[in-house]
Amino acid sequence: MAQPTTTALSKEMQDCVEACMACHSACEETMSSCMQKGGQAQMQVMRALIDCSETTRMCSDMMMRRSPMSAEMCALCAKACDMCAEACMSMPDDPQMMACAQACRRCAETCRAMAGATM
Question: Which among 19, 27, 31, 60 is least surrounded, fewest beta carbons within 10 Å?
Fold first, then answer.
């Protein structure tokens, strides 16, 4: 019987990948919501959403393929998520923005933990 060529992701890494994917989805949904509302969306918020969406997607991909740069990517991802959460908090009356900020905070927390872990 052949041995698997890769080991399973650790529970912490799985949690981080899931948080990244959830954050990516939240950012994409929030961008769509902003575009539907038209001129209300500030460019700073849209930039933060795009940066966070792309960073979380790349971070989860790198962890799943066990990239040797995963820890550094997780640190960068945590920063992008923090910035996005702050940007979303600038619109506290928007439930979509608040949900996105919450997903960003959760992702930042798990990414910070992974950035300090040995991958």
Answer: 31
